[in-house]
Automatic annotation (TrEMBL), chains A, B:
Catalytic activity: S-adenosyl-L-methionine + H(+) = S-adenosyl 3-(methylsulfanyl)propylamine + CO2
Active site as annotated: 63, 68, 83
GN (gene name): speH
Biological classification of the source: Bacteria, Bacillati, Bacillota, Clostridia, Thermosediminibacterales
GO cellular component: cytosol
Protein name: S-adenosylmethionine decarboxylase proenzyme
EC number: 4.1.1.50
Any single GO BP term: spermidine biosynthetic process
Pfam families for the chain: AdoMet_dc
Keyword check for Oxidoreductase: no
Length: 124, 124
């Protein structure tokens, strides 16, 4: 089986709560994570919740990065989904974990888009 | 262990390629899926690739829905991530699969944000 993409689901604990509640900084960390991994940023959308918490996404040519933060728990749910062989999603994931000053991360990689035959998609 | 969220990773195969390449329609399907499931839409960002394919996200108060489509393969990678007990992510996922006229879906639910103690986050 050949997979189109790699998707990291990261549970990032014991982060700096001040960072987790700073929407502008979270956006900057995610965009820089995408760029550091060599991805091409296409769209960005972030939302600051009241009284706290940030949700955001960076759509890249290679798929996406998302984050949801719970400052009150020091926790962030992060996804990094990349297609193709050019970008390593772990580079972006580790950059984000470092940016959040996290003390602990549990992350799993899931293969996405499984096909029996090797396939070459043309949109990345 | 108590989890903050539920995340469905759906591999949706044998979809209608015309729908998969229609950015406006894909956006409509994802937004309606969120609303049908009872979620509150906060931000929307979609991107149409050349020569084909669509990537998009709907940020909801309860987390997010994302999609990446490969019309040439009849395939879509869909994620529905919801927090709290009010919204059932499977409702949104099944709505999307139906909207894409899919013949086959492989989907898995992953628990996100595991904590030893029951927690009550306050931002949803």
């Amino acid at each position: 089986m050949k997979n189109l993409g790699r998707h990291i689901l990261a549970e990032i604990y014991d982060c700096d709560p001040t960072i987790l509640n700073n929407s502008g900084l979270i956006e900057e960390i995610l965009v820089k994570a995408a760029l550091e991994a060599g991805a091409e940023v296409r769209e960005v959308a972030f939302h600051k919740f009241s009284p706290q918490g940030v949700s955001g996404v960076v759509i890249i040519s290679e798929s996406h990065l998302t984050i949801h933060t719970w400052p009150e728990l020091g926790y962030a749910a992060v996804d990094v989904f990349t297609c193709g062989d050019r970008v390593n999603p772990w580079d972006a994931c580790n950059y984000i974990s470092k940016g959040l000053c996290a003390k602990h991360m549990d992350a799993t990689e899931v293969k996405r888009g499984l096909f029996d035959m090797p396939v070459k998609a043309i949109n990345f």
